[in-house]
Amino acid sequence: MKKNINWFVTALSTMLLWMLLVADVCAAQGEEGTLLAGAAVADITPEKGVSMKGSVGGNGIVNEVHDPLHARCVALRNGETTLAICVVDATSFWAEGMERAKTMVHKRIGLPVERILISATHSHAAIRVRGISTEPIDMKYYALVEEGVADAICQAVRNLAPAEVAYGVVSKPEYVKGRRWRIEAGSCGPNPFGERTDRAWMYPRVRNRLDPEPLGRSDPSLSILSLRHVDGTPLAVLGNYSIHYVGGFKRNCVSADYFASFAEELGKVLDAENSTGDHPSFVGIMSNGNSGNIAPGQGVRGYDGMRRIGRDLAEAAADICRNGPYLRDVPLAMVEERLELQVRKPDAQRIQWARDVLAGKWKIKPMHGWTHTYAQGTLQLAEYPDTVSPRFQVIRIGALAIASNPCEMYAETGLAIKEASPFKVTFNIELANGQNGYLPPPEQHELGGYSTWPTISSYLEVNASEKIKAHLLELLARVAG
Fold first, then answer.
1. In whole angstroms, what is the distance from residue 78 CA to residue 414 CA?
2. What residue ranges do the domains of the chain occupy?
3. Contact by Cβ (8 Å): 127, 442
4. 391: helix, coil or strand?
5. Which of 35, 83, 134, 404 could cross-link to 432 by cystine, CB 3.0-4.6 Å?
6. Strand partners, 428
7. Measured between alpha carbons, how far is 417 from 428 in angstroms, rounded to an integer?
8. Can you tell me the distance from the alpha carbon of 466 to that of 409, in angstroms, rounded to the nearest whole number?
9. Within 13 Å, how many C-alpha atoms sit on residue 113's CB side?
10. Cα(first)–Cα(last) distance of the chain, in Å?
């Protein structure tokens, strides 16, 4: 009997706590047409010893921190619709970890998991969250990231307050450049599988390039979603740009790359820290657009390059952030729908090749430096399911739309979505709600080269980009009403 009473008291206490948390969130809810916004940040910097390994290379383990890593979140509400967008300083973030973070949020404050968008920035000086290592120190860090993401989202929702929104696009073409060139088949040597059939290569020597310009299109758009309190105080800015990452960092050294530089520099440009008053601190956020085939232009590299690009983009965004025009009554909507896609699994011949490589039975000279890595990836890919069904989400904020996908989308696919969208401003957030590898268009698959070679970082069906594009356009049409 005593045990039953204790169980009842515990259950009642838990229920009351949950009701208080939900009431705390709902207290901020305004009438239909009144926009509310909130933002928050959580520190997710790893301790020394955490793995920085990658699928085709890596930076060993963390020995030094150049700049901290964060989970940065903005939440929005209008009437009964509440949603959250969280951008995480991570090379990649597997769907399972994101799902755990979303579930934590739902349990704490009642926000439905389908109203939460989480994405990774793709800084290569950050961590692949639950991607490579299973060492205890790494598993501890992955759990810390999931907890930090949940904390940031919950706090952003609790910070909801009356707000105004502005959005716009600035062209910044100087920092986006393709990184694949056409070549004569085989002129750059064999690929990891020993084949000399590739007619495109990433960063080939100039003498091997058939054209002076790289393949495909680049997306020059710096897209801005700016939020401020109704007294004009800066609240948060979500930027979106399509550089893969800047790079040029030290081995074993953590950095959030230009994504964090933009956030920091924008706060300085807007003098946000000196104008918050009684409001929570300003939060700057940069998300990755459609950069699967894009590198920084003008030879910009290293920490100075990250700061330079971050500062330049912040200054370019400043006019929208300062002058708007700002709106208070904007429609808010979000839809989510999975899409089933085929997996390019290896055949029996490729599997035997991988086993021979790893057994030291396969010899070819010269051998590609990633042959053993791709052999390991081949055997891993063989264990994948025949299909995957990742989440795709689209958000409407007035005349602005955000289309998200879990891939490293090529710029030409992202541009096609923007150009066909029914909204005044549309941008794509990639590596959202999971990590499903590169997304080359079919014509790029035909040329081959890195990002098309089948492995755990590029495994979706050849027509996946076309199916995803059509799927996202259908979702955009749905939220447009």
1. 28
2. 30-177+214-342+386-480
3. no
4. strand
5. 404
6. 403
7. 8
8. 11
9. 15
10. 56
Neighbour-count burial for 309-345, b at 16+ CB within 10 Å, e otherwise: bbbbbbebbbebbeeeebeeebbbbbebeebebebbb
Q: How much of the chain, in percent, has pLDDT values that exceed 90?
A: 86
Establish how many alpha carbons lie within 13 A of residue 181's alpha carbon, considering only the half-sphere containing its beta carbon. 17
Hunting for tokens 């383990």 — which residue is that? Answer: 61
Q: Are 283 and 262 in contact (CB under 8 A)?
A: no
- pLDDT of the residue at 364: 86
pLDDT at residue 116 tops 80: yes
Residue 375's Cβ-side half-sphere holds a number of Cα atoms within 13 Å equal to 19
Cis peptide before 366 (omega within 30 of 0): yes
Render 4-29 in DSSP notation, one character per residue.
HHHHHHHHHHHHHHHHHHHHHHHTT-
The pair of structure tokens assigned to 428 is: 């794509």
* C-alpha distance from residue 19 to each of 13, 209, 425 (Å): 10, 63, 38
User: What is the Cα–Cα distance from 77 to 333, expressed in whole angstroms?
Assistant: 9
88, HSE (Cβ side, Cα atoms, 13 Å): 36
Kindly report the length of the chain: 481
Q: Could you tell me the two tokens for 292?
A: 């699967």
